[in-house]
């Protein structure tokens, strides 16, 4: 599969922009905590995919609302708000802007800059699946791994694992034409 095949129906009608449908999209994560795996989720607030004239992706951006993080454990969620961890009162959002997009044998590597806790870091998302849906929607599944040390979270690895696995399940809709 190539990006061009993915967006071919939309290109025939001149479609070049897709936006995230927040109610139908989510970001989930896993991280080790005292030898156990902790699962959590946070809503995707917004995002956008833009393709060029021949159907290849040109830009990808997105925002995850970490301020609404949910691990199904109220105390842990409160702890994550602390300055020594995610500092969510000052930095409730995680943003991402791609600067390199490559098609690699049916997967796409979307590399760019994420901003977490006010700090920029390089993040590589691997897009493993695209599904064309009704009304020219696109379902995108992707994953990435974030090293918490790069965002300034210092804690023994026994307490909090070094790597945070991120899974994205995103529904993209054609952007409405402006009149």
Key traits:
179 residues; mainly beta; nine-stranded antiparallel beta sheet; 2 helices; 53% strand; disordered N terminus
Q: If you had to describe this structure to a student in words, what would you say it looks like?
A:
With 179 residues, the chain is mainly beta. It is 9% helix and 53% strand. It contains 2 helices and 9 strands, in the order αββββαβββββ. Strands 1, 2, 3, 4, 5, 6, 7, 8 and 9 form a 9-stranded antiparallel beta sheet that branches. A hairpin with a 2-residue loop joins β2 and β3 (36-51). The protein is globular, with a radius of gyration of 17 Å. The protein starts with a helix and ends in a 5-residue tail after the last strand. Mean pLDDT is 87; it is low at 1-5.
Number of strands: 9
Helix content: under 10%
Q: What's the mean pLDDT score?
A: 87
**What is the element string, with H for helices and E for strands?**
HEEEEHEEEEE
The poorly predicted ranges are 1-5
Beta percentage is over 45%
Shape summary = globular
Computed Rg: 17 Å
Distance between the termini: 34 Å
Structure classification: mainly beta
Biggest sheet: strands, sense, closure? 9 strands, antiparallel
- Compute the number of helices: 2
Compact summary:
By secondary structure, the chain is mostly beta strands. The protein is built from two helices and nine strands; from the N terminus they run αββββαβββββ. The two termini are about 35 Å apart.
Q: Which helices and strands appear, and what pairs or packs with what?
A:
Layout (H helix, E strand, L loop, with lengths): L2 H10 L4 E4 L5 E8 L2 E16 L5 E9 L8 H7 L12 E12 L2 E10 L2 E14 L5 E10 L15 E12 L5
Antiparallel strand pairs: 1-3, 1-9, 2-3, 2-9, 3-4, 4-5, 5-6, 6-7, 7-8, 8-9
């Amino acid at each position: 599969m190539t990006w061009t095949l993915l967006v071919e129906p939309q290109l025939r009608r001149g479609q070049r922009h897709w936006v995230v449908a927040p109610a139908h999209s989510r970001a989930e994560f896993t991280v080790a905590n005292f030898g156990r795996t902790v699962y959590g989720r946070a809503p995707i607030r917004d995002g956008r995919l833009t393709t060029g004239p021949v159907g290849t992706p040109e830009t990808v951006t997105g925002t995850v609302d970490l301020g609404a993080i949910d691990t199904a454990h109220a105390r842990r969620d409160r702890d994550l708000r602390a300055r020594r961890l995610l500092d969510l009162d000052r930095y409730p959002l995680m943003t991402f802007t791609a600067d390199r997009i490559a098609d690699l044998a049916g997967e796409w590597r979307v590399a760019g800059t994420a901003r977490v806790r006010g700090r920029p870091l390089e993040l590589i998302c691997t897009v493993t699946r695209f599904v064309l849906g009704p009304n020219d929607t696109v379902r995108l599944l992707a994953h990435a791994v974030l090293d918490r040390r790069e965002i300034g979270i210092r804690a023994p690895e026994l307490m909090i694992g070094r790597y945070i696995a991120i899974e994205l399940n995103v529904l993209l809709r054609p952007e409405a034409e402006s009149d």
